[in-house]
Amino acid sequence: MPSKLELSRYPLQWLFPVLILVVVFTVYPFAYAIYNSFFQILLVLPTKPFIGFKNYANVVASPYFWESLGNTLTFAAITAPVTVLISLGVARLLLTRFVGRGVVRALVLLPWAIPGSVAGILWLWIFHGQFGVLNALLYKLGIIGSYIQFTKDPRLAKVCVMIAHVWTQIPFTSVLLMAALTTVNKELYEAAEVDGAGVFRRLLSVTIPSVAGMMIISLIYELIIGITAYDVVYSLTGGGPGGATTLLSYYIWKESFTQLNFGTGSALGVLVALLTLVLITTILKVIPNQVMVREGE
Amino acid sequence: MGKKIFVHIAALALLAFTVVPLLLVMMASVLPDASILSFPPRWFTRRPTLAYYDYIFTGQRPEAYELRGAERGMITEEVRQVPRGMGVSATVAVMVMAVNMVCGSMAAYSFARLRFRGKAATFSGIVMCRLLPAAALAVPFYLIIQGLGLLDTKLALVLVHSILTLPFTVLILTLFFRSIPVEIEEAAKIDGSGPWGTFWRITLPLSASSLVAVGLFSFMLSYSEFLYSNILGGSERTRTLPVIMAALSTNTDVAWGMFMAGVFLTLVPTLVLVILVWNFVVEGIVFGGSKY
Q: Which of A9, A38, A125, A202 has the most other CB atoms within 10 Å of its CB?
């Protein structure tokens, strides 16, 4: 093999399958989406007239767009930090000794491997308005006299979708944070304890700074996942009631594949991609550089 | 002492949050519909039944429905697609796993061991591709797959799922290959082995566990993927489990217990996989880099 210092020519024979699959099949479709967004493409019509920015104008003029944009931003802004914070607790817990830790460690990973559309159904059975488990339980306990329509009330439906989404996301971020926590220097804790730092003090001054890099990575990851969430919503509420739980991805799907309006669908896609891009760059700008450098050591 | 109690309570709460939704599905799948639909709720007054599972696999209608013709509409043929959907999902996921292990490891090796112009740009390009929201590409993918004449084929799903999983595979394997001491490979070089030979004979066998971990990870992502499977699939030949399940969830005609039996069947491979090998996968991915 060539030693590390030898400069070889571009190793196309090693890279071409991945380059073709990933780069070509991402860059080209995205360029194609941008191109399509300037045309009126209705699958029911044979022609494809150029209409400039009209698709974008239509999107911006649509109240459904603003509603789903608002929903998506709220959804991501709440679920991402909540997921990361709960996961930090879970990661810390799973590194503490207790009876049956091995079993808990394995079972906690379960929601990760469950398809999102199925996870939505699991929670639908809990939140169902006619015969859901939660309703039955609350009724039996005498807390409610009649069933609550959890998935039919706009506000409650939002909460239901968030709970189900966070449930599916906790395992992955917990594992990431566990990996980060295991690298924290034990002496830091001992030093903190000697200095008389309590549990919270240690959490704030030792644990969080030590894993800040991974927390930010997880947060960015969860924000992206939140902005693009789709399958849990699809099977839990179907975007309803009204448009209360319609997130952008669901809206794109609906516009493109039920309204068969591919031009507007493309314009929406481009807007979502831009939104993600702006978000990631902002976060990377705002967080102190140190954090990222330390992570890359 | 107080801390110990707190830790155990926290662990129990976590366990409940994770597992109870799954147990509830298992429970519902053996309850007769009359129990589930009863108000005030009386779930356990009737005898549990395996009739729904029977129907899914054999088409044998549950007795309760034969007796009360009015509710026959509550049975849907769609649930019977579950076993077939499992086959479709598994086939696609296995192929995605193979693509990831072969193509992903080749690319990762060149990033870890070769020095060439444009390496950093190519690497970040591949990883960044995954940051583009999947929904943004839904329409162009549909049109491209349609143009290639691949709509409603398993190949289209394999293709798209590979695109979604490869960036992660390349990232993880690159980190792992870098952690293997170069000296081991230098020895092979002295024996006159080229990069290709070294890769196949030395590096791959050394990384078997990470490779399997990454492979299983891509398997799981493909097995769960819904957005593209829903758009690109169509007939029974290409309907994956998540697609069937989502369709059932919006089907008001389906009997709840029957539906839950379908959901539970969907979960079985997941449960088996997680309990047997998932810890290994996680360790391979997260802690793999620090092995040497």
A: A125
Do residues B61 and B118 both lie within one domain?
no
Q: Does the complex come out with an ipTM higher than 0.90? A: no
Contact call for A30 and B278, based on CB within 8 A: no
Say whether A179 and B125 touch across the interface (CB within 8 A): no
Q: Is B13 an 8 Å CB contact of chain A?
A: no
Residues B73 and B119 in one domain: no
State which H helix or E strand residue B258 sits in.
Answer: helix B256-273
Q: How many domains does chain A have?
A: 1
Mean pLDDT in consecutive groups of 10 residues from the start of chain B, 292 residues: 84 91 90 78 77 80 58 64 90 95 92 85 85 85 90 93 91 86 80 81 85 88 91 86 87 80 87 77 66 46
- CATH number (domain holding residue A206): 1.10.3720.10
Nearest Cα neighbor of B263 from B277, B278, B249 is B249
Q: B247 with B126, same domain? A: yes
Same domain, B8 and B29: yes
What tens digit of pLDDT does each residue of A109-136 get? Answer: 888 888 898 999 999 999 988 888 898 8
Identify whether A39 is part of a domain. no
CB contact under 8 A, B220 and A30: no
Do B48 and B99 lie in one domain? The reply is no
A225-274 pLDDT, tens digit per residue, is 898 888 899 889 888 788 888 998 899 988 888 888 888 889 999 998 89
Q: Is residue A151 over pLDDT 50? A: yes
- Taking the Cβ of residue B106 and every Cβ of chain A, the question of whether any pair is shorter than 8 Å is answered with yes
Residue A184: domain span: 50-295
pLDDT at A290: 46
Q: Can you give the CATH number for the domain in which B270 is found?
A: 1.10.3720.10
> Closest residue of B to A92, CA-based?
B7
Dihedral angle computed from the Cα positions of residues A225, A227, A228 and A231, in that order, rounded to the nearest 10 degrees: 80
Which two three-digit tokens encode residue B168?
């992660």
Three-state DSSP class for residue A53: coil
Q: Does B277 touch chain A (CB under 8 A)?
A: no
Contact residues, B window 120-159, toward A, CB-based 8 Å cutoff: 122, 125-126, 129, 131-144, 159
Which pLDDT band holds residue A20 (cuts at 50, 70, 90)? confident
Range of the domain at B33: 2-78
Inform me whether the C-beta atom of residue B18 falls under 8 Å from chain A C-beta atoms.
Answer: yes
Most A CBs within 10 A among B113, B139, B143, B184, hence the mutation to make, goes to: B139
Query: What's the structural domain count of chain B?
Result: 2
Q: Which two tokens stand for residue B66?
A: 């034969």
A226, closest residue in chain B (CA to CA) = B133
Residues B68 and B83 in one domain: no
Is A36 a member of any domain? no
Q: How far apart are CA B171 and CA B286, in angstroms?
A: 12
- Angle, helices B154-179 vs A25-36, to 10°: value is 130
Percent of chain B topping pLDDT 90: 23
Rounded Cα distance, B174 and B107, in Å: 8
